[in-house]
Amino acid sequence: MNNKCYSLKITVFHGRQAPEVGTLVGYGAIVEAHHLPVPLPKKLSLISTKKRRYSTTHWQVFTPRHEPENNLYKQLVFALKYEGVDLLVLKKLFLTISKAQITAIITSEMLGQYSRKLWFLYEWLLENQLDIPDLSTGNYVPLLDQKLQYGITGIKSYRQRIINNLPGTREFCPLIFRTTPLENYIAAQLSKQKNDYLNNFRKDVLQRAASFLLLKDSKASFTIEKENPGTNRAMRWGKAIGQAGNKPLSVEELERLQQIVIENARFIKLGLRNEGGFVGEHDRSTGGPLPEHISARHEDLPSLLSGLISANELLQDEVYDAVLAAAIVAFGFVFIHPFEDGNGRLHRYIIHHVLAKKEFTNQGVIFPVSSSILEHIDDYRNVLESYSHGLLDFIEWKETPDHNVEVLNDTIDYYRYFDATKLAEFLYDCVLDTLNRVIPQEVNYLLRYDKFKHFIDNEYEMPDKMVAVLVRFLEQNNGILSKRTLKKEFSGLNEDEVKSIQDTFQSIFIDEL
Q1: What is the mean pLDDT of residues 314-327?
Q2: pLDDT greater than 80 at residue 391
Q3: Can you give the three-state secondary structure of 165-219, one letter per residue?
Q4: Which residues contact 358 (CB under 8 A, 6 or more apart)?
């Protein structure tokens, strides 16, 4: 159907070492043959000369019998069958080939499921109807193969007899591949584990834990941005986090939250950007931008945010996992970077929002995932860079007079259609860490505090405020009261009382750990 060659023998492809000599097929072959301006898919496909099939981190290796014919249609069939749906590659391809060519491809096997998928995707992505009559027979086929990628329940498209189970809209639709780590996490039902754990504690302990966890998460979110907020500011943002899920996600709601995040807006324009944006440094000598991530063009923000908000509504589908949904919406938001400042904290707020809306957090205790992210900050940066750095080669930009960036080419699809698999795996790692470490640490601390306070109340009848000071001093000095403290705040204690307090504290807070 065209004279392009899709049979390329390789050992290395665009700097990626192949596990053996073989023939590049599927999306990789299509990208190469049509010179498509896209980051390479996370996994490429290779036909081995040997009769073995296996998978590595970046490659799927198939036997010679799997090799598709040297034409675009058969390469597309192979890609859809074994590599899933790649909306970015397909959109760029459809913009490259003619309407007559795609029509010929589809009508060559009119009733085939892959022909119908291509037909649907062409019209859906380009909003351009082909001169092909509606089908009147045939079984309905899910667009996404749920063995490869996670989809929603979906709705039927009568024209192609396809079930559109894409977890998003034309304006915003990242996809997540089914992987062993994600399958294990979903099967573990972490939300139920959390609820079972929390049910073991008194309501008053949980309420106090909730307050501490909110403040902990708020402070951690600021620390990730290398800010050290005062307690009042952290508490104010913690209160906003605690209300996550109460209001529908909208541009107006995001702008309201930005006003809470940004304490001093004298030098920042609040609301959606009306110029370019980037994350990175400035050259020390020239002031020129050194971007690590380039934000979506400000002209594209209304469409992207509209799509993100609509996708969030679709992801409320009960069959779609809550953590996967949170990864898609929250990371999609931070990649778009719609505001001049506050994007990172709002991105983490969105994680809370989606988890709350999908009732992952239904015990009144917010999931302090920012605390876990802070503990895994290098992994966090790596997953962000896995998206951003791959994109920089495809964004044309120039420096503006005020040392910002102005994007010169059409980039909107890079923010609409991306692989969110690594992001979802990272977020699930943090959710598990939060469940196994962060929440138990806080709850157990409160239980130990109550035990120690009960001892102090019975023996010394100290006021609560003084008990809090006592605990703080003991924590700061590994269970020992300093000479300065004994001369000032606790001068009323005799030597035996000091020893009793220190021994009790150490037995509760140190020996029990």
Answers
A1: 96
A2: yes
A3: CCCCECCECCECECCHHHHHHHHHCHHHHHHHHHCCCCHHHHHHHHHHHHHHHHH
A4: 315, 316, 322, 325, 326
Query: CA-CA distances (angstroms) from residue 459 to 447, 474, 486, 511?
Result: 19, 17, 18, 21
Residue 275 has pLDDT above 90, yes or no: yes
**pLDDT single digits (tens) 117-160:** 999 999 999 999 999 999 998 899 999 999 999 999 999 999 99
Judge contact between 479 and 509, C-beta under 8 A: yes
Exposed / middle / buried, residue 265 (Cβ in 10 Å: 0-12, 13-18, 19+): middle
Model confidence band, residue 217 (pLDDT cutoffs 50, 70, 90)? confident
How far is residue 501 from each of residues 127, 236, 473, measured CA to CA in Å?
Answer: 74, 35, 12
What class has domain 190-264+287-436? mainly alpha
Residue labelled with tokens 């779609």: 320
Helix/strand/coil for 438: helix
Q: In this structure, what DSSP letter does residue 25 have? A: E
Contact 161, 116 (CB under 8 A): yes
Cα–Cα distance between 307 and 415 in angstroms, integer? Answer: 11
Q: In this structure, what are the phi and psi dihedrals at residue 23, rounded to the nearest 5 degrees?
A: -105, 125
Which of helix, strand or coil describes residue 164? strand
The Cβ of residue 441 has, within 10 Å, a number of other Cβ atoms equal to 14
Determine the pLDDT at residue 113: 96
As a dihedral over the C-alpha atoms of residue 230, residue 231, residue 235, residue 238, rounded to 10 degrees, the angle is: 70
- List beta partners, residue 149: 177
pTM (2 decimals)?
0.91
Q: What's the average model confidence in pLDDT over 383-411?
A: 94
Nearest CA to 161 out of 127, 137, 133 is that of 137
With a CB cutoff of 8 Å and minimum separation 6, the contacts of 10 are 18, 21, 22, 23, 24, 46
The pair of structure tokens assigned to 297 is: 């063009």
d(CA 300, CA 394): 17
Domain boundaries, the chain: 8-97, 190-264+287-436, 443-510
Task: Work out the mean pLDDT of the chain and round it to a whole number.
Answer: 91
**Could you tell me the pLDDT band of residue 492, with boundaries at 50, 70 and 90?**
confident
In the chain, the N- to C-terminal Cα span, in Å, equals: 69
For 6-65, write each residue's pLDDT tens digit: 888 999 999 999 999 999 999 999 999 999 999 999 999 999 988 889 999 999 999 999
In whole angstroms, give the CA distance from residue 380 to residue 392: 19
Q: How many helices, marked H, and strands, marked E, lie in the chain?
A: 21, 12
Q: Which helix (H) or strand (E) holds 289?
A: strand 289-294
